[in-house]
Write a structure and sequence with these properties.
The chain is built from 16 helices and 32 strands. With 728 residues, it is an alpha+beta fold. Among the domains are: 170 residues, Aldehyde oxidase/xanthine dehydrogenase, molybdopterin binding domain (Aldehyde Oxidoreductase, domain 4), CATH 3.30.365.10; 194 residues, Aldehyde oxidase/xanthine dehydrogenase, molybdopterin binding domain (Aldehyde Oxidoreductase, domain 4, 2-Layer Sandwich), CATH 3.30.365.10. It has a 7-stranded mixed β-sheet with strand order 4-6-2-13-10-11-12. It has a 5-stranded mixed β-sheet with strand order 1-27-21-22-23, covered by helices on one side. Bound molecules: dioxothiomolybdenum(VI) ion (MOS). Dioxothiomolybdenum(VI) ion binds next to loops. Pfam families: Ald_Xan_dh_C, MoCoBD_1, MoCoBD_2.
């Protein structure tokens, strides 16, 4: 189905199932530990054995030799595959460093061999006997040094005359900000079981994008993708770290071919950080100029990040092109070469670090103007792209977010003068920030099967990375077919099913439900035909199909055998005529310990403007999870770089600290009630990443309000606050 004009009145609008707060249909499997994750799929292939990765101990250079003699003789060892013997491979389009192959070391902990043994312990013990002879080469690991030596190129976006407008503005700020590298820290490690049958490969793995995985694995292995099946029905978090095939899949495939048995490979937690991808660190520069009336006249945002040769930048300036009004604007993204592990997508790439800087800058600008930060943002709202005023936002309720949030949070009780509020040993502060994130769309398919008993089975390669895909896709099918949620059976994450959008870029929910919608439109037509009903007047509800005076059980349409149809929603060009984005506002209360500088987040509120909310429970869970992630980004998460030896030092969850539920006593989410007919047939937009955008800055602004200490370099660890705290 081509979605080629704004959505109108569809069966979805009844909202009997869609839009209702249904708990996750996979919830019982998750909470009872019976949802099978990749490494636990003991039942899928007989005779599974274990692969343990050997990873590079240098950040850059060449492998002269790998001595595997001792390991081969160790108990239980079945074989060893080394990267030099496999040889270099082509990569998928979105990755830079090789996953497994060749004699080049491009980054620390790059996979260079896999040891296969009967048991996990035997594989691990034998791997320790492998010794590697390297010819190390000098690498570049220091972003600050590389950025200082870098000559900036032309702006990426320039509108009006930023430099003149900034020079003439009566009120300005000109500040530099930095965000550190972060990594996804998904609960479930990267893991794969691989099995060959002749020249056909099946991988049971943990991956966000099944069709990309299949395509890229075919490229890496040099085999036709028709010969590959990828199955990933349950995924313990991805956050962008599992958008692409990773080394566990490639090693498992080579290992299984070598020993002629199914092989399971998991990346041990201490290998994931340097073997995998991460969110690159940024150095940002923001200048804002405004009139004394508070209207922004000039805004520039520049960002520098590093990556391996051939890699991409962290596009931290994207939102600054159109979030706030202002005729004269400029953005520039600089990319420098570093030999650290590969920088790539992590939840809301671009906007997350970009808004961590921009929304502090907006707070500083409001203070310079002696304006309230909420009022300053509302004054500079825009309903058109300021650099391209012919382009309107399809739906933009940002001012509603600000006003609803301020009222619900009790913003008016905040003391705008920093460092004034104290409760015992705690300095109390309040801060806020705006949120902005795009809402892209990818084609998405589904197959629906009406059973003779009236149930409907939905099959799609869509993934559920802990987000709620199972539930919202089932809700869509139930609504369309007039069934109860319990009458829908979901089958996801298998490349044997129609290709869906997958889980990424916060497009998963809106696109995958649109794919189910398209398939169900076709199924309704097939049912009408089977029952001899006029489909123009047909209604599906309560398990019945009604047309005029006739009412027939839906099951009867399949009395002679199941009816199977499939379709793919394609998103037409009309959709790009307007700016399609999501908006929000974050409000935070912090306490900063006056003696130690320890910061505790006491309460958080997010207000989200994302079109139709398909399920308030799963949407809320996405947002509070994102808010929690934002607390980590603000206060604790930082990949510490050893700039001499070229790796991330804190490569486990003991030293890379992420927040947990009990760190944040109160989190609330408000959804703006709206629909966006230009976004999808269900009028929904993305939300999974919006909840993270701006959180870090809201916390930094709250810490400033509490202490009077303005921290522009994340994370806000206590050492950055101590010198500015009051005498005790
Ligand atoms: Mo998201 S970084 O596209 O998984």
């Amino acid at each position: 189905m081509l979605y080629d004009s704004p959505a109108t009145d569809t069966p979805i609008e009844r909202l009997r199932v869609v839009g209702q707060p249904h708990p996750r249909i996979d919830g019982a499997l998750k909470t009872t530990g019976t949802a099978p994750y990749a490494y636990e799929r003991h039942d899928v292939a007989e005779g599974q054995v274990y692969g343990w990765p050997v990873v590079a101990g240098i950040p850059k250079g060449r492998i002269l030799g790998i001595d595997t003699l001792a390991a081969r003789g160790a108990p239980g060892v079945l074989g060893i595959v080394t990267a030099p013997e496999v040889g270099p491979h082509e990569n998928g389009p979105m990755n830079t460093a090789l996953l497994f192959g060749g004699d080049r070391v491009q980054h620390y902990h790059q996979a260079i061999a896999v040891v296969i043994a009967e048991t996990f312990e035997q594989a691990r013990a034998a791997a320790a006997l492998v010794s590697v002879d390297y010819a190390p080469e000098a690498g570049r690991f220091d972003l600050h040094a590389a950025a200082a030596a870098h000559e900036p190129g032309d702006p990426d976006m320039s509108h009006g005359d930023f430099e003149s407008a900034f020079a003439e503005a009566p009120v300005t700020i000109d500040q530099r900000y930095s965000t550190p590298g972060e990594y996804h820290a998904a609960m479930e490690p990267h893991a794969t079981i691989a099995a060959w049958e002749g020249d056909r490969l099946t991988v049971w793995t943990s991956n966000q994008m099944i069709a990309w995985a299949r395509r890229d694995l075919a490229t890496v292995l040099g085999i036709p993708q028709e010969n590959i099946r990828v199955d990933s029905p349950y995924i313990g978090g991805g956050f962008g770290g599992k958008l692409f095939v990773r080394s566990d899949v490639v090693m498992a495939a080579h290992a299984a071919r070598r020993v002629g048995r199914p092989v399971k490979v998991m990346l041990p937690r201490p290998f994931i950080t340097n073997n995998g991808t991460h969110r690159a660190a940024t150095l940002q520069h923001i200048r804002i100029g405004a009139g004394t009336d508070g209207r922004i006249t000039a805004l520039s945002h520049e960002s520098t990040s590093g990556n391996l040769p051939g890699g991409s930048p962290e596009t931290a300036t994207a939102q600054s092109e159109m979030f706030y009004a202002g005729a004269n604007r400029m953005t520039r993204v600089n990319l420098v070469e570093l030999d650290l592990p590969e920088g790539n997508a992590m939840r809301a790439p671009g906007e997350t670090p970009g808004l961590m800087a921009l929304e502090i800058a907006m707070d500083e600008m409001a203070e310079a103007l002696k304006m309230d930060p909420v009022a300053f943002r509302a004054l500079n709202d825009t309903q058109v792209n300021p650099a391209n005023p012919d382009r309107r936002f399809s739906r933009r309720n940002f001012v509603d977010c600000l006003e609803r949030g301020a009222a619900a949070f009790g913003w008016s009780a905040r003391n705008p003068v920093p460092g004034q509020r104290r409760e015992g040993d705690w300095l109390i502060g309040h801060g806020m920030a705006g949120a902005f994130r795009g809402s892209p769309a990818l084609a998405s398919g589904a197959r629906v099967r009406l059973q003779p008993d009236g149930r409907v089975i939905v099959e799609s390669d869509m993934t559920d990375i802990g987000t709620g895909s199972y539930t919202i896709m089932a809700q869509t099918a139930a609504e369309m077919m007039g069934l109860e949620l319990g009458q829908i059976e979901m089958r996801l994450g298998d490349s044997d099913y129609p290709v869906a959008a997958g889980s990424g870029g916060q497009f998963g929910a809106s696109c995958s439900t649109a794919g189910v919608y398209a398939a169900c439109v076709k199924l309704r037509e097939a049912v009408a035909k089977a029952l001899g009903l006029n489909q123009a007047e047909i209604d599906f509800s309560d398990g019945m199909v009604r047309s005029g005076a006739r009412a027939i059980p839906l099951a009867e349409a399949a009395a002679g055998g199941e009816i199977v149809v499939e379709d793919t929603i394609e998103f037409g060009d009309f959709r790009s005529a307007a700016e399609l984005d999501t908006f929000g506002a974050h409000f935070v209360e912090v306490g900063v310990n006056v003696a130690t500088g320890e910061t505790r987040v006491r309460r958080m509120l997010a207000v989200c403007d994302s079109g139709r909310i398909l399920n308030p429970i799963t949407a809320r869970s996405q947002v509070i999870g994102a808010m929690t992630m934002g607390v980590g980004a603000a206060l604790s998460e930082e990949l510490a770089v050893d700039t001499a030896r070229g790796f991330f030092v804190n490569h486990d969850l003991a030293s890379y600290e992420v927040p947990v539920h009990s760190d944040i006593p109160s989190q609330e989410v408000i959804f703006i009630e709206d629909t966006d007919a230009n976004s999808s047939p269900l009028k929904a937009k993305g939300i999974g990443e919006l909840g993270l955008c701006g959180v870090g800055a809201a916390i930094s602004n709250a810490v400033y309000n509490a202490t009077g200490v303005r921290v522009r370099d994340y994370p806000l660890t206590l050492d950055k606050l101590l010198a500015g705290l009051p005498e005790i």
